[in-house]
Specification:
The complex is a heterodimer of chains A (about 130) and B (about 550). Chain A has helices at about 5-20, 30-40, 55-65, 70-90, 100-129, and strands at about 45, 50. Chain A has a two-stranded antiparallel sheet with strand order 1-2. Chain A is mainly alpha-helical and about 130 residues long. Chain A has 5 helices and 2 strands. Chain B has about 550 residues and is of the alpha/beta class. Chain B contains 22 helices and 20 strands. Chain B has a 5-stranded parallel β-sheet with strand order 2-1-5-6-7, sandwiched between helices. In chain B, a hairpin with a 2-residue loop joins strand 3 (about 35-40) and strand 4 (about 40-45). The relative contact order of chain B is 0.07. Mean pLDDT of chain B is about 80; it is low at about 1-5, about 145-150 and about 485-500. The chains are: A mainly alpha (about 130), B alpha/beta (about 550).
């Protein structure tokens, strides 16, 4: 099992899903923004095994795959983990979040998607060496 | 947006282990009909596996587009290729991961076998798809690189791609007389033509004889180019070498015997238009050089003149030969070939590689036959002679009994099942031209010399007349339409001598077997990947895929030579 495949899997399961419904321009309607974040962050993956939030998707990946990463890639994974922790905290209070906090959560989803992409690119380069 | 030609909503099948793609499509593209999947007593808007999707790909009405995910988180029993438990060993876990990661490709392979004509949009999170080449070989129509763009959601990108594919699907099957069909190769060609036709760059159109190169340039590329001048065809094979320069670039009075007046060449006739140089491989070396100068400098010189004048013709050349090989062998100028942008060449596939287009081609060929007023009158006489009512309404061609039953037409011409099966299997060395000729001949025989028609009073005031095409005539026409020697393919010539490889696993054995086959083919083809592709598939078009596979298996052209 290579780091590249593991990173691509995170990208598929988390980065693809966490901004899946995001429009090009941030919703001006706060409740629409909340509903979209609920769909993308709180019910990120749904399947026969149930519904999983973005944080749970990351946790499952981390348990299975994080051991493959070392050095700079491990630091990148840690960054993603920190971002996911902040997402977890905000998502738990999603129904009562005020507009600035919702925007912060939206920003974090963008960041985690971007970090996952960077991890996949770096892992790919690493595995080619 | 994206209605079907018959006015119904476009039918989309989503194959994804997750429901979100289907939900998003329902929300963002309500004009689409997302097909319902029934499984275990419940109804869902997405098929979670091949097992759930397969029933929706049977029957007459296939989906217009399949949206297919790449990675599927499914239990072993639902994972292709063999849907069986894998166990819990380290090897089994590795295999399970691999199957989940590539499940979309396994599904695509099955889908292509069952429904080659259906458009497939492969969705994936991968920016650099690890399986892109394999997906292309399985003729995926498009990819969405989900989350590839920082700001916009992948769902919106998906909807945009899907709408574009549907627009292509609902585009007319014919442009002028050029037949598109809906095979993946032709859909790809349509995209390429749309992008390249409006540009001023010289183009090269390739493909075997009878595939419609001339029609593509005349009826599609020239009108799309937006150029105001004429379309001027020039057959490089039929003009004597001594007259080529004058024919191409013009001549001054007295420049050669018989030149009694100044006359323009085709470059001037095609000013601001399109000059179509057919069978360019037949151009003599001197003419190739002059053509290269005209393309490089944008100027021409009439025979007998010292003055060079600018030209404004856009050149589109066509060839049914492998110009790359000709150039390598010295039979065609490589600098001229380069000037024709060979990497952007528009390749028309042989009809045998797009058999899924045959039913539509048959219907359109018949429609052209029925459009002829003389044929319409003859058909009316035929119906009256058989005691049927004066036909009012359309005529139709049916290629199966079911087609005939469902045909909404006053007169239905029916290709008998066995004859159609033979047509569907025929190699069609003369391609579309030959297919159209044979079917038109069979229709004419049925109308003017056939045994007659069978009126069917039907029910509810529905009077129809059936006319069967003569199967024996069709078989005879097909027998005469085989390529010389095609039926006597040499057994020895088609066989490879392979060593039986040894490996420690079945997968390893398969890999070694493939390596051995490719090495053998590489030697047989003298290191020419185009030739290898031809030996493997009957066409040179897959040369790039062959080369990629060759390299992927760890083979090196340098080592093998």
């Amino acid at each position: 099992m290579g780091v590249s495949e593991a990173a691509e899997r995170l990208r598929h399961d988390l980065a693809k899903a966490i901004r899946f419904s995001a429009p090009e321009v941030l919703e001006t309607d706060t409740e629409a923004l909340r509903a979209r974040l609920h769909a993308d962050v709180a019910t990120t993956r749904r399947g026969p095994s149930g519904t999983h939030s973005a944080a749970e998707v990351f946790d499952a990946w981390w348990r299975e795959e994080s051991r493959h990463f070392g050095g700079a890639l491990a630091r990148r994974v840690d960054e993603i983990a920190r971002t996911v922790e902040e997402i977890r905290g905000l998502a738990a209070r999603l129904p009562s979040l005020a507009r600035p906090e919702l925007e912060r959560l939206d920003d974090l989803t963008r960041r985690v998607a971007s970090e996952c992409r960077a991890l996949a690119s770096e892992a790919r380069r690493e595995s080619r060496r | 947006m994206s209605p079907r030609l018959d006015g119904e909503r476009a039918r989309v099948l989503v194959i994804d282990d997750q429901p979100r793609t289907a939900e998003l499509l329902a929300r963002l593209a309500p004009e689409l009909r997302i097909l319902a999947v029934r499984s275990g007593g419940e109804s869902r808007s997405h098929a979670r596996s091949w097992r759930e999707a397969a029933p929706l790909l049977e029957g007459r009405r296939a989906p217009d587009v399949v949206v297919l995910d790449l990675r599927f988180d499914l239990p072993d029993e639902e994972l292709l290729p063999d849907e069986r438990p894998l166990g819990d060993s380290a090897a089994a876990r590795r295999l399970r991961r691999e199957r989940r990661d590539r499940q979309g490709l396994f599904i695509l392979e099955r889908l292509r076998r069952r429904r080659p004509e259906v458009a497939v949009l492969l969705t994936t999170a991968y920016e650099e798809i690890p399986f892109e080449q394999e997906a292309l070989e399985l003729k995926a129509d498009a990819f969405t690189y989900a989350a590839a763009e920082e700001e916009s959601g992948s769902g919106h990108l998906l909807v945009a791609r899907l709408r574009r594919i549907l627009e292509e699907r609902t585009a007319p099957q014919r442009t002028g007389r050029f037949f598109w069909g809906s095979s993946p190769a032709m859909r790809e060609l349509r995209r390429k033509v749309s992008a390249l036709a409006p540009t001023p760059m010289p183009l090269l159109v390739t493909g075997p004889t009878g595939t419609g190169k001339n029609l593509l340039v005349r009826d599609v590329i020239h009108p799309l180019s937006g150029r105001t001048g004429a379309f001027v065809p020039f057959d490089c094979a039929t003009v004597p070498e001594g007259l080529l320069q004058a024919a191409l670039f013009g001549a001054l009075r007295g420049s050669f015997t018989g030149a009694v007046a100044d006359r323009p060449g085709v470059f001037e006739t095609a000013a601001d238009g399109t000059l179509f140089l057919d069978e360019i491989e037949n151009l003599a070396p001197d003419a190739q050089k002059m053509l290269l100068t005209a393309l490089n400098d944008g100027t021409i010189r009439r025979l007998g003149s010292a003055a060079e004048t600018p030209h404004s013709a856009r050149v589109v050349a066509a060839s049914n030969a492998a110009l790359g090989r000709r150039a390598a062998e010295g039979g065609f100028r490589s600098d001229l070939l380069m000037r024709l942008n060979p990497s952007l060449a528009l390749e028309l596939p042989p009809l045998s590689e797009r058999r899924e287009d045959l039913p539509e081609l048959a219907r359109l060929t018949a429609a052209a036959f029925f459009d002829n007023p003389r044929h319409r009158r003859a058909i009316a006489s035929l119906v009256r002679a058989a005691g049927g009512q004066e036909p009012e309404g359309a005529f139709a061609l049916a290629v199966s009994e079911r087609d005939a039953r469902d045909a909404d037409a006053a007169v239905v011409f029916v290709v008998p099942g066995k004859a159609w099966s033979a047509m569907a299997r025929h190699p069609w060395p003369g391609n579309l031209r030959q297919f159209e000729m044979i079917l038109t001949d069979a229709l004419a025989a049925a109308v003017y010399a056939g045994p007659g028609a069978s009126p069917d009073p039907g029910g509810a005031g529905r009077h129809r007349t059936f006319v069967a095409l003569d199967p024996r005539l069709l078989f005879d026409l097909l027998a005469g339409a085989r390529a010389p020697g095609a039926s006597s393919a040499s057994a020895s010539g088609d066989r490879l001598a392979l060593e039986r490889p040894r490996a420690s696993s079945v997968a390893g054995f398969r890999r070694e077997l493939e390596r051995s086959t490719l090495r053998s083919l590489f030697r047989e083809a003298g290191g020419d990947f185009e030739r290898m592709a031809e030996l493997m598939t009957g066409s040179r078009r897959e040369a790039r895929a062959v080369r990629l596979r060759f390299n992927k298996l760890g083979l090196s052209a340098r080592d093998e030579k």
